[in-house]
Amino acid sequence: MKKWKLALIVATVFTLMIAGCGKSGNNGNGKEGNQGTQTNNTEQTQQGTKKDISIKMFNYKVEIAESLNKLAEEYEKETGVKVEVETHGGGEDYSALLKAELASGSEPEIFNNGGYVGMIPYMDRTTDLTDEPWTKDLIETSKTPTTVDGKLYGMPMNVEGYGIVYNKSLFEKAGITEEPKTLSQLKEAVEKLNSADITPFMATNEWWSLGMHLVNVGLANQPNPQKFIEDVKAGNATFKDNEVFKQWLDLVDLVFNHAQKDKMTTDYASQIANFSAGKAAMMIQGNWTQADIDKIDPSLQLGVLPAPINDKEGSVLIGVPSNYIVNSKSEHPEEAKDFLNWLVTSETGKTFVSKEFKFIPALTSIEATENDIGQIAVAVQEKSSTAVGWYWDLFPDGVTQGFGAAMQEYLGAQISREELLEKLDKAVQDIVKQ
Fold first, then answer.
1. Cα 417 → chain centroid
2. Are 341 and 24 in contact (CB under 8 A)?
3. Secondary structure class of 196 (helix, strand, coil)
C-alpha cells in the first residue's frame, strides 16, 4: 500500500502561507521509583496515586469524539491516568465555550487552538513544548502556527485538506466522464446532474463550514492572501471592492442555488448522513468526513474536485486545522504532556491517529496508508502540488463567526451579493476596532 507523502502536502501549504506573509523523568506517577526493590505496599500506593489523577481535554473535533473517548479508556488501562474528554464543535462556538470554561475557573489540561493570532489570548496559559521528545519527528513547517520566538507552544493535531467531495457513481449516472476543474466545467456538471434528477450539492448551515472553509476559498485565491487580510484589518482594502471575491460569489451562488431544499436546517451531521446516503452528488468538505461516511456506507466511491472561482483551474485547500495546547494553569500539565507524548509515540496512540481518527499525521514517525486514511485524503494528496492554504486563523477571534453569520443569511437568500460582501467587511471591523 502506498504511504503518504506528508512532507509534500504540509510543505505546499506552508510555503504558500509564508510566501503570502525540561520534562521531568518523574511525573508523580511513580515511573522512576517503581523498581523491583520496592515493597508491594509502595507499589500499591503509587498505583493508587495514578488512579487519583484525572486530566481534562477540551476537544473541538466532533468527528473523532467517539474514538477519542475510546483512546482515553486505553490510556487509563495502560497508565492509570484518567482522561476526561469534553467535546464541543459542529454547531457550537468552541472558542466562546472555551472562554466561558476558563472564566468559570475550570482549567482543562489540554485544549485546541489554531495558532497564529488565535493563540495570543492564551499565551499566559501555553506551555513550552520545544523539548518534548516527539518534536524531532514533526514536519518542520507544521510547527509554524504555534511557534513564537523560536519556541513551540502546541502539538499540531494533523494535516487536513478540503475541496468539493463528490460521489463517483452519481457522476457516472449523470454522464459526467471527466472531473470539472474550472467554474464553467463545474456548471456543466451541475446541469447534467439536474437533468438526471440528482441534487448537485448537499450544503450545510454550519457557521464554521461557511465562515471558515467557504470564505477561505476567496482568501486563498488572492494574489497575496496575507497582505489582503492585513489590509482588510487595517481598513486599506475591502471585500466589497475586491475582484477575487466578486468572482468567488459565482461559486457560492452555484452551490447555494443547486443545493437541497432544506439547506437552512441541515447541520453537519445531516449533511454527512444525507450525502453518504446518495441524496446529493457533491459537498464542500474535507478528509475529516471520511470516518463518518464510512460508518454509513464504506463502499461509496469518492473523489475530490478543486474549488474553482473562474475559468482558471481551481485548487484544493490544505492546512493544519488545530493544535493541542497544554494549559500551564491546569492542575496536571506534566501529565498532559505525558498523554500527548503517548498519543504520538505508543503503538496504541499511533494506531488511533491513523486508523481510528483517519488523520493525515503531522509526524513522520506515524505511518498512514491509503486504507487507513481513506479515499478523500488520497484524492487531496493527488492534487496537493497545486494546493492553496488556510488563512482564517490570521483574523482575530470572532471574525470568522461574523463571516459565518453573514453566510447563513446569504444561504437563506435574506441578503444580496453586495450586502454579503459588506457584512464580511463589517465582521472584520467590528472586531479589530474593539
1. 28
2. no
3. coil
Q: Which residues pair with 167 in a beta bridge?
A: 302
Instruction: Report d(CA 145, CA 143) in Å as an integer.
Output: 6
Residue given cell 470568522 in the structure block? 400
- Which residues 6+ apart lie within 8 Å of 330 measured at CB? 55, 56, 107, 108, 109, 336
pLDDT in tens, 168-201: 999 999 999 999 999 999 999 999 999 999 999 9
- CA gap 380, 368 in Å, rounded: 14
Overall average pLDDT of the 404-418 stretch: 98
Q: What is the pLDDT of residue 81?
A: 97
Q: Which residues in 202-241 belong to E strands, given as ranges?
A: none
- Cα 132 to Cα 325: distance, rounded to the nearest angstrom: 13
- Compute the distance between CA of residue 155 and CA of residue 146 in angstroms, rounded to an integer: 8
pTM score, whole prediction = 0.76
Sign of CA dihedral 20, 120, 141, 355: negative
418: pLDDT strictly greater than 50: yes
Do strands 155-156 and 147-148 pair parallel, antiparallel, or not at all (unpaired)?
unpaired
Q: Which amino acid is at 385?
A: S
Is residue 6's pLDDT more than 50? no
3-state secondary structure of 325: strand
CA 42 – CA 38 distance, rounded (Å): 6
CA neighbor of 329 nearest in space, from 125, 90, 62: 125
First to last CA, the chain: 52
CA dihedral 44, 48, 49, 54 (to 10 degrees): 150
Instruction: Give the phi and the psi of residue 227 in degrees, each rounded to 5.
Output: -65, -40
- For 177, the grid coordinates are 466522464
Q: How far is CA 63 from CA 89, 151, 193, 390, in A?
A: 9, 30, 29, 20
- Residue 200 backbone phi and psi in degrees, to 5: -65, -50
What gap in Å lies between CA 169 and CA 194, rounded to an integer?
15
Cβ–Cβ contacts within 10 Å for residue 279, how many? 16
- Characterise 204 by phi-psi region: left (phi > 0), alpha (psi -120 to 50), beta (else): beta
Q: For 48-52, 57-61, 263-267, 382-386, which range has the lowest pLDDT when averaged over its residues?
A: 48-52
Q: 198-226: per-residue pLDDT in tens?
A: 999 999 999 999 999 999 999 999 999 99
